[in-house]
């Protein structure tokens, strides 16, 4: 089975890795990609963009040039993704969304779109991170009620949202498992006289520095011991390869809004 794929925002950091991963995948046929109209990479060979040599497919600024795609892969921006979803619904195209930072209301819009087309909404497409989600769920079930739970994340200086979508997802998994409302129990950073830690809170700490690709740790700390569950990404290719896994999976399912947990068979 060959799946025709287009990459949205293909001149971005993730876009270039996605081009390479798609080009090297034996079941994927890369049919195009888009860039902003103001981009200096309009009508540019996709392979050249990814540094893998010309592949004979050029970038476009018009989504209508991507009608040959069965699945679109979108790692762009919130505004762009919300527009792209409208086009996908009009043209019955499946979409893997890697863009992060959506509000609850925006997630709702994406879930509604999932009634018409197949969507994977994956704030982190790394297989290791999705296993981490499962591990924190198991840990929260066992010891979450009496340990102090803190979530640490670090990313490169260019990242625009904080905490990362992945850190928020870790928080949601833990809060859901423990029957807490993350909006009520999350503490985003501390300064000055903070008073003693309230046991049922979930703390978040963020570092933005240099070229860190992505690190996440969930702490479950008691007096005398603590468990730290950590994932470190050392290359963006891990996200690109996970996105390919989501793409080949999505090409086989009907409409719905799915997660990487569904893709990896980790949902009950
Ligand atoms: P980036 O800024 O390098 O790339 C984004 C690209 O999208 C840019 O080239 C930009 O020009 C393009 N773009 C934005 N709006 C557009 C539009 N309307 N039309 C065409 N192109 C448009 O950023 P990045 O590091 O590649 O990350 C992109 C997104 O993916 C971010 O939201 C980031 O948080 C997310 N991300 C997700 C994962 C994951 O595993 N899901 C991993 C890394 C990054």
Q: Which sheet architecture does the biggest sheet show?
A: 7 strands, parallel
| CATH fold title of the largest domain | Rossmann fold
Flag low-confidence runs.
none
| Estimated helix fraction | 25-40%
CATH superfamily of the largest domain: NAD(P)-binding Rossmann-like Domain
Radius of gyration: 19 Å
Q: Looking across the biggest beta sheet, what order are the strands in?
A: 3-2-1-4-5-6-12
Order of helices and strands: EHEHEEHEHEHEHHEEEEHEH
Oligomer: single chain
Description:
The chain has 268 residues and is α/β, with parallel strands linked by helices. It has 2 domains: 3-121 and 236-263, NAD(P)-binding Rossmann-like Domain (Rossmann fold, 3-Layer(aba) Sandwich); 127-233, Dihydrodipicolinate Reductase, domain 2. It is built from 9 helices and 12 strands. A 7-stranded parallel sheet has the order 3-2-1-4-5-6-12, with helices on both faces. A 5-stranded mixed sheet has the order 8-9-7-10-11. 40% of the residues are buried. Bound molecules: nicotinamide-adenine-dinucleotide (NAD). Nicotinamide-adenine-dinucleotide is lined by residues 9, 11-15, 34-36, 75-77, 80, 98-101, 122-126, 239.
Q: What are the salient characteristics of this protein?
A:
seven-stranded parallel β-sheet, single chain, 9 helices, binds nicotinamide-adenine-dinucleotide, five-stranded mixed β-sheet, 268 residues, Dihydrodipicolinate Reductase, domain 2, alpha/beta, 24% strand, Rossmann fold
């Amino acid at each position: 089975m060959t799946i025709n794929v287009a990459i949205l925002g293909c001149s971005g950091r993730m876009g270039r890795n996605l081009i390479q991963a798609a080009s090297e995948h034996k079941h994927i046929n890369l049919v195009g990609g888009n860039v902003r109209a103001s981009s200096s990479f309009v009508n540019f060979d996709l392979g050249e963009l990814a540094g893998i040599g010309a592949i004979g497919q050029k970038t476009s600024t018009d989504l209508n040039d991507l009608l040959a795609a069965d699945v679109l892969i979108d790692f762009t921006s919130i505004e762009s993704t919300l527009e792209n979803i409208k086009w996908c619904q009009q043209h019955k195209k499946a979409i893997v969304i890697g863009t992060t930072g959506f509000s609850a209301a925006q997630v709702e819009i994406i879930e509604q779109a999932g009634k018409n087309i197949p969507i994977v909404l994956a704030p982190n497409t790394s297989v290791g991170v999705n296993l981490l989600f499962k591990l924190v769920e198991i840990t929260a079930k066992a010891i979450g009620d009496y340990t102090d739970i803190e979530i640490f994340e670090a990313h490169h200086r260019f990242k625009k949202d904080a905490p990362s979508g992945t850190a928020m997802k870790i928080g949601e998994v833990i809060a859901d498992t423990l029957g807490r409302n993350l909006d009520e129990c999350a503490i985003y950073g501390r300064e000055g006289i903070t008073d003693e830690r309230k046991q049922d809170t979930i703390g978040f700490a963020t570092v933005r520095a240099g070229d860190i690709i992505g690190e996440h740790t969930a702490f479950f700390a008691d007096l005398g011991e603590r468990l730290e569950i950590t994932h470190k990404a050392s290359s963006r290719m891990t996200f690109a390869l996970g996105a390919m896994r989501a793409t080949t999976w999505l090409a086989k399912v009907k409409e719905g809004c799915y997660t990487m947990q569904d893709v990896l068979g980790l949902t009950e």
